[in-house]
Design brief:
The structure is a single chain. With 178 residues, this protein is an alpha/beta fold. The protein has a single domain, classed as 3-Layer(aba) Sandwich (Rossmann fold). It is built from 5 helices and 8 strands; from the N terminus they run E-H-E-H-E-H-E-H-E-E-E-H-E. Helix 2 links the parallel strand 2 and strand 3. Helix 1 packs across helix 2.
Length: 178
């Protein structure tokens, strides 16, 4: 894999997340009925960052959760015979709440479909919204993000790589690889 270009540096990522946080607060008239749910792995630190930004904007601590979609994937048999399960941790009751699913990259839509199935198994939310750092196109399912940090049109053979300090122990960066 060869790095083609860097498309977001740490400051661009911070600006995108700040904008997304403002859009979430505006669309939902504050943060009172919200639950932010990060899709593991990189959606979790992004959810925590959005939680902090919403706290700065609204002076309200929005509940946050972590969602493992491994068992909900439709390619589980192809992916591995021994899937690595991660813990789902949503401590608040989601019934009637507005759930904002958060992920790093929106591509085919299959991860989001699996995440919606997992959330619905936990309760009956009033609404599910989607926030992504990057939308790269090439959808296979009729899913769109409500909040997008950056649209990055890509070719099928290109790969978007998101690096986050919390996970990768490197500076935040979004890059395109071939």
């Amino acid at each position: 894999m060869n790095k083609k270009t860097s498309v977001m540096d740490p400051s661009a990522m911070m600006r995108a997340l700040t904008r997304i946080a403002h859009e979430i607060v505006e669309r939902n008239k504050g943060g009172e009925n919200l639950v932010l749910v990060g899709i593991k792995t990189r959606g979790v630190p992004l959810a925590k960052r959005l939680q902090e930004k919403i706290k700065q904007i609204e002076n309200r601590n929005v509940p946050i959760g972590e969602l493992d979609i491994t068992l909900y994937r439709d390619d589980l048999e192809e992916a591995s015979t021994d899937p690595q399960l991660k813990e789902t941790n949503i401590e608040t009751d989601i019934t009637g709440k507005t759930i904002v699913l958060i992920d790093d990259v929106l591509y085919t839509g299959r991860t989001v479909r699996a995440a919606m199935d997992a959330v619905i198994d936990l309760g009956r939310p009033g609404q599910i919204q989607l926030a992504v750092l990057v939308d790269r196109g090439h959808r296979e399912l009729p899913i769109r993000a409500d909040y997008v940090g950056k649209n990055i049109p890509t070719a099928e053979q290109e790969i978007i790589v998101v690096k986050l300090e919390e996970i990768d122990k490197q500076n935040d960066e979004v890059s395109i690889y071939e």
